[in-house]
Prior knowledge:
Layout: H1 9-12, H2 22-26, H3 39-42, H4 54-78, E1 82-88, H5 95-102, E2 111-115, H6 130-133, E3 142-146, H7 155-158, H8 162-165, H9 175-192, E4 195-203, H10 206-218, H11 228-234, H12 237-251, E5 258-262, H13 266-284, H14 293-308
Parallel strand pairs: 1-3, 1-4, 2-3, 4-5
The structure holds adenosine monophosphate and magnesium ion.
Amino acid sequence: VRTVNLRNDEEEGMGDLDTSWVPGFVEPLRVKPGSKVTLAKDFDPAERFGVAKKKDGVQLLRRGVQLLAEYQDRLAAQGTCAVLVVLQGIDAAGKDSTIRHVMSGVNPQGVHVSSFKVPAGEELEHDYLWRHVRRLPARGEIGIFNRSHYEEVAVVRVHPENLAREKIPPVPDDIWKRRYREINDWERYLDGNGIRVVKLFLNVSKEEQRIRFLKRIDRPEKNWKFSAADVRERRFWDDYQHAYSQMLTHTGTEWAPWHVVPADHKWFARICAAAVIARTLIEIDPQYPVPDEAARRELLRARAELEAEVPPQA
Ligand code: AMP
Ligand code: MG
């Protein structure tokens, strides 16, 4: 009996893919569950872990992009787990360009990006997690939240007047504590049901944000990215830092840990983001399904039928 020649890791080059560099980029970014985070004190936005120059980073990013492409193919083929990437960060932290670069190698069919703006219309007729539930990735998919349910404890915490628009019943004094708990519970449920939650906070400095805003004003092709509201929000810098520090402290869990990505050097942030997502995929270790005996016989029959066909020109 001839055996059907099925794809295996060796042929796909999986054996050659170097994953050894990945953990070194992930561990230092991870917020230890239960630890208290003060952003300004605990994380340096300009950190580069010894990778001095952008040109040294290019090779690493290429490797990361390749890893993601290979693993995503297996994730889709296996169809058991999903990955939800949660991307947070203040204006001009680099969320859009991180997505563009890190996902540049993956099959677009298997990735869905959802951007969350100020909730409106139907969204305000529902509980705050509703619009996020609707955007969850299906099994085998990678979903990316460009901003996320964490805005509900970030911008909404900085500007609590947003709560009034949300039409929730009388707001309790411990609203933020309660929301952290609700978010943790929801993410635990997702993790338990095969949806791995990967959380990235792009940590940019105040000075770097200023420089990026100026670029958005000075370069015509970047004008569309700028709004006067962005500079108004910048005045609340310290409040945002506090809200984000609280968020990292209270929602960094074993099942869905936060990663604080140094974001002053965009090229470095991309390597870190790729590494964190790759790390999760490596842990999932999805496998191509192996056909059982019946399916294998079916394949052999199909092959015999195709081989028996005589090409018209022969
Ligand atoms: P951008 O990411 O530049 O397109 O801007 C989206 C805007 O929507 C940001 O100013 C966010 O703060 C805001 N936003 C996103 N989610 C929420 C939310 N749940 N409540 C209030 N504002 C939000
Ligand atoms: Mg913006």
